[in-house]
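Here is one such protein, fold included:

. . .
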Amino acid sequence: MSPRGRIVDELGSFDKYIWGFVNYKPMVGHFRYPRQVTIKTSKADAISKDLIRRGFRGVGPTVVYSFMQVSGITNDHLISCFRFQYCLATASSIDNKTKTNDKQTEDAAGLAFAGAIDELSLCT
């Protein structure tokens, strides 16, 4: 069985696994200047180590942090960027949906996320 498959068996979905690291709430960096944006964080390092322990390959902390940015787990847009407020509002709506436990939305997001992970072929 693939590492992702074992995570799905254990926790129900890869979505729950990955969002569990940030308590199901997107992290927001309030950066003013590009030099303030990091290429990895301690959270990305912890996720990377856990993924490697579970059998994933090619998931170093920088790769994991890039994934966190792209998937909306972290918002590193500069506060002057036109996308910053949009991403902040989107994160807020995701948080509200999680709080109301909208099962249909959660299942659809989990399936889409799992499909994207399958296409990446990061497993051994």
Q: What stands out?
A: The chain has a mean pLDDT of 82. The two ends are 10 Å apart (CA to CA). The CA atoms of residues 97 and 105 lie 8 Å apart.
